[in-house]
Design a protein that fits this description.
Layout lengths: L1 E5 L3 H7 L1 H9 L3 E6 L4 H10 L2 E4 L9 H18 L3 E5 L1 H13 L4 E6 L15 H18 L4 E4 L2 H9 L8 E3 L21 E5 L8 H14 L4 E5 L12 H10 L3 E4 L4 H6 L3 E4 L8 H8 L3 E5 L14 E4 L4 H13 L2 H17 L2 H11 L7
Parallel strand pairs: 1-2, 1-4, 2-3, 4-5, 5-6, 6-7, 8-9, 8-11, 9-10, 11-12, 12-13
């Protein structure tokens, strides 16, 4: 079959769809990999996976109705020219507009995947502005219009199904809960976690909704009682996002030496190998890949008891679930590891076992192929 994978950036396609493209190619399918920002290097990478790169136009964020209508028409023309048998759109805007373009192009099979519900469905604990409420209503309306035309909608956790489809009364023909999108387990080999010193690592964009402020405050609380404990934050500032850690706060952190700040790194495995416990106090996720990576390498996890995060931890077995937006609750679980370091090893081994059974991309992509009805006939 000819398959259109409609995503956003080339980098996300390369990082998160490589194994799926390999599997589709191995099964004899022709894959058109759509992205908005290809350059010569990323095009060559995607070609090496076995796909045909296709550049298209779309604004990744914001809702400009005129621009979105024009770009949907352009995408429809592209799809009509290529005439794929299947359109598989992932992330919010492609799931909406890619599905509509595929319907206009009369593509027989249309699928969409949301890897989380994002900002509008994240409980911040603050009063929601009129603008936010309005934009959420527009987004839900667009989902209602486009999801009528998908053969299946794929979500990563059951909370997303309830909060989006049940609570908002959105009709879809068929729904699947995938779990994590998976990773190449061999890229994240198990290694025993260090316990002297004990190091807590945070890996995410430095955003309020990722729990960055809770991690910083918890580190301060813990350092007062256990000055030998170490803390590390991998990621980067996203100053275009209103929830970004401010430059002033970032510079303050660099000066006070409480937290090590390597920034964005390309060798996350090396940093996870030096860490004892992985921490993600996010307010909501789809199914966090960073946690899957840490678990594959045998790291105990502290994460929030919220949609997407709670699916990664069996509380007390491979880590702890904590109340969201609570630095004191986060610090309390850090104290548990500092006072009982043997838990770091036993819980880390449990994480590794869970990752092998649930997060291997081979297993996940076979499940996805089945949902998309793309298995090779025997």
């Amino acid at each position: 079959m000819k398959i259109a994978l409609i995503g956003t950036t080339a980098e996300s396609l390369i990082q998160f769809r490589k194994e799926l493209i390999h599997l589709l190619h191995k099964n004899g399918h022709v894959i058109y990999a759509f992205a908005v920002d290809y350059d010569e290097m990323t095009e060559e990478k995607v070609k090496s996976f076995g796909a045909i790169p296709v550049r298209y136009e779309f604004s990744r964020t914001g809702l400009n109705p005129i621009s979105d209508v024009i770009n949907t028409f352009k995408l429809y023309k592209l799809l009509k020219a290529l005439q794929p048998d299947v359109a598989f759109s992932y992330f919010s805007k492609p799931a909406i507009f890619g599905t509509l373009a595929a319907k206009l192009a009369k593509i027989k099979k249309r699928y969409a995947m949301l890897e989380g519900l994002g900002f509008f469905f994240t409980q911040s604990g603050r009063k929601v502005s009129f603008r936010t409420k309005l934009l959420k209503k527009i987004l839900i309306l667009l989902y209602k219009i486009s999801f009528k035309y998908v053969d299946s909608l794929i979500l990563l956790n059951a909370d997303d199904k309830k909060d989006l489809l049940v609570d908002e009364k959105i009709y879809v023909k068929d729904v699947h809960i995938l779990g994590g999108i998976g990773l190449n387990i061999s890229d994240y080999p198990y290694c025993p976690p260090p316990i002297d010193p004990i190091t807590f690592i945070f890996v995410a964009r430095f955003l309020e909704e990722k729990g960055v402020y809770e991690f910083i405050e918890a580190a301060r609380i813990v350092k007062d009682k256990f000055p030998e404990a170490k803390f590390c934050m991998l990621g980067h500032l996203d100053l275009q996002n209103p929830g970004s850690l401010t430059i002033d706060r970032f510079n303050e952190l660099k000066c006070n030496n409480i937290i090590e700040l390597p920034g964005h790194v390309n060798n996350v495995q090396d940093w996870l190998a030096k860490a004892s416990v992985f921490v993600l106090p996010s307010w909501r996720e789809g199914f966090p890949r960073s946690t899957q990576e840490a678990m594959a390498m045998g790291r105990a996890v502290i994460t929030s008891d919220v949609p997407g995060c709670r699916e990664t931890v069996q509380d007390g077995l491979n880590g702890f679930l904590v109340e969201p937006r609570s630095p004191s609750a986060l610090a309390e679980k850090m104290f548990r590891f500092l006072m009982h370091p043997e838990l770091i090893t036993t819980m880390g081994e449990a994480s590794h076992h869970i990752a092998q059974n649930q997060f291997d991309s081979v297993v996940v992509n076979m499940k996805l192929m089945k949902i998309l009805h793309l298995q090779k006939e025997s």
